[in-house]
């Protein structure tokens, strides 16, 4: 227990040195850290309650998800019945009351229509139900009804995708350590430390970024378009920047190219030095875009974002390079936000802000000062008590506590963890309990000396016999911390992270490191008595 080879000494000291070095950047100013090598730029990030920032609670509409699913199913039904052999002719598809219904013109083809549609439905998770029910009414009308299980499963999937899209958009802004997590079935909490003006964030996250390219219906009557009416096969969409002055335009319903074929989007400038968005398509999208522009030269082509027409430029020549430009009276900031939204992908559901808070940095500064003061008082009180109670061995414990504080910060920096106000509470608690292991060891050494064992044997048995108790006690702490980490969120998770890191580092420093110090002292002094 007290014999350490050179390799063992190196194995103990090396991780402690690395941990201390990784903690140093957290105490340096930003300009100094930026000049350090990349592997040394490990800093503890401050949470929203310490550095200030913005808090948003976003809510998704389940009705929006259901509506989108109906629209997708309608398109699939039309395609399947039209392309199959033999072709099945149907009347107009109605989407009233949240269900699809249509009449099959030839009653003899009703069963065939149902057989083609059923494979379009899927299982709703593990519920054993389908996401749509297909039934025949009045012998010739097919009704497709979404099930509750299907809607719930769709909302769950949409929220998971929306969370990842939001994460990508915020990462594109260059903001460090945002907190993004689902709350309940249809809400997402977004906390961005250091961001004092949430307007740009709200504009970015509230943008669905559904990009579509459709042909303009030039046959539409402007007077009817102004009244919201369009020819069959077309629809009227808002067009705020319409040069004609009418804030609407008629476009074909068919989507020629969509944003799903995009591979990149960047903010740029046109020949008039106006802000635009440069987009690039993948291979499939580039071919479709080239084909559409080749077949429709001298026709207007509408660029639609989230149901609104940004611009409707004329196709002067085929665009075959797989890239295009989006213009629409952008500022540099709005063009950059649109580029970010398009790069990160479209949101599967529209999100609205239902709660908004801004935390000032002054509150965080006060919390940091209070936390540092509490930490200093805790360390000082523990150090005085340990030295007064155990002398030299108390000094070893104090050295372990000081190193443990730095190692905790270093590990948090390496993991990119975020320190919150509850995290500071966990930090202070870890400092206070870090010497528990040393107290157990030293009391056991006293007991062994009272039994008549020699100095070396007493120290050896003290570390050996107390280790089991120390291990069991810290395992129970770790279990509690693990449960808080797994089930908790926000402040609770921040507390659990610091607690778990502190348990691991304090056991290592309090047991292994102090045992190394005691061993070196015994070898050097060979004492016949210890004052403990």
Summarize this entry quickly.
By secondary structure, the protein is of the alpha+beta class. The chain has 16 helices and 18 strands. Helix content is 51%, strand content 18%.
What is this structure's SSE topology?
Layout: H1 6-23, H2 30-34, E1 45-46, H3 48-51, E2 53-60, H4 62-83, E3 100-103, H5 110-117, E4 132-137, E5 141-146, H6 148-172, E6 179-183, E7 187-193, H7 199-205, E8 211-215, H8 222-226, E9 234-238, E10 248-252, E11 257-258, E12 262-269, E13 275-281, H9 283-295, E14 301-305, E15 308-311, E16 323-330, H10 332-344, E17 351-359, H11 361-390, H12 392-415, E18 418-419, H13 421-433, H14 436-450, H15 455-487, H16 491-525
Parallel strand pairs: 1-18
Antiparallel strand pairs: 2-7, 2-17, 3-5, 4-5, 6-7, 8-11, 8-14, 9-10, 12-13, 13-16, 14-15
Subunit structure: Forms a complex with SecF. Part of the essential Sec protein translocation apparatus which comprises SecA, SecYEG and auxiliary proteins SecDF-YajC and YidC.
Subcellular location: Cell membrane
Transmembrane segments: 370-388, 395-415, 421-441, 470-489, 495-518
């Amino acid at each position: 227990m007290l014999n350490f080879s050179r390799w063992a000494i190196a194995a103990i000291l090396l991780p402690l040195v690395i941990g201390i070095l990784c903690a140093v950047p957290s105490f340096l100013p930003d300009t100094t850290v930026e000049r350090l090598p990349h592997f040394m730029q490990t800093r503890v990030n401050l949470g929203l309650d310490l550095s200030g920032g913005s808090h948003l609670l976003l809510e998704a509409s389940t009705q929006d998800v259901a509506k989108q699913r109906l629209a997708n199913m309608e398109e699939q039904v039309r395609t399947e019945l039209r392309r199959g052999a033999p072709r099945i002719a149907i009347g107009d598809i109605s989407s009233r009351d949240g269900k699809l219904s249509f009449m099959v013109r030839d009653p003899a083809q009703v069963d065939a229509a149902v057989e083609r549609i059923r494979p379009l439905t899927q299982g709703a998770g593990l519920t054993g139900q389908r996401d749509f029910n297909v039934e025949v009414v009045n012998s010739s009308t097919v009704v497709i009804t979404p099930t509750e299980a299907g809607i719930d499963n769709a909302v769950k999937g949409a929220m998971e995708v929306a969370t990842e899209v939001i994460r990508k958009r915020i990462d594109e802004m260059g903001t460090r350590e945002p907190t993004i997590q689902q709350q309940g079935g249809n809400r997402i909490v977004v906390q961005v430390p250091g961001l004092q003006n949430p307007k740009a964030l709200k504009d970015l996250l509230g943008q669905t970024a559904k990009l579509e390219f459709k042909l303009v219906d030039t046959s539409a009557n402007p007077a009817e378009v102004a009244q919201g009416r369009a020819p069959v096969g077309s629809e009227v969409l808002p067009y705020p920047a319409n040069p004609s002055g009418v804030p609407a335009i008629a476009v074909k319903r068919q989507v020629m190219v969509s944003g799903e074929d995009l591979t990149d989007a960047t903010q740029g400038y046109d020949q008039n030095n106006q802000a635009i968005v440069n987009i690039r398509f993948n291979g499939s999208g580039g071919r479709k875009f080239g084909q559409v522009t080749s077949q429709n030269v001298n026709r207007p082509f509408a660029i639609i974002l989230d149901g609104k027409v940004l611009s409707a430029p004329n196709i002067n020549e085929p665009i075959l390079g797989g890239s295009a430009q989006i213009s629409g009276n952008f500022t540099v900031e709005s063009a950059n936000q649109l580029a970010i939204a398009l790069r990160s992908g479209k949101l599967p559901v529209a999100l609205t802000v239902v709660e908004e808070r801004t935390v000032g940095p002054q509150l965080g500064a006060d919390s940091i000062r209070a936390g540092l003061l509490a930490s200093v008082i805790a360390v000082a009180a523990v150090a005085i008590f340990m030295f007064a109670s155990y002398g030299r061995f108390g000094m070893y414990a104090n050295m372990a506590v000081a190193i443990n504080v730095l190692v905790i910060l270093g590990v948090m920096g390496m993991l990119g963890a975020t320190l919150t106000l509850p995290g500071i509470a966990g930090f202070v608690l870890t400092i206070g309990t870090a010497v528990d292991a040393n107290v157990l060891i030293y009391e056991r050494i006293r007991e062994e000396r009272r039994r008549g064992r020699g100095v070396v044997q007493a120290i050896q048995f003290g570390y050996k016999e107390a280790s089991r108790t120390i291990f069991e006690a810290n395992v129970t702490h770790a279990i509690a911390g693990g449960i808080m980490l797994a089930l908790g969120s926000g402040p609770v998770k921040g507390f659990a992270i610091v607690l778990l890191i502190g348990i691991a580092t304090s056991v290592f420093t309090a047991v292994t490191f102090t045992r190394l110090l005691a061993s070196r002292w015994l070898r050097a002094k060979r004492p016949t008595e210890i004052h403990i």
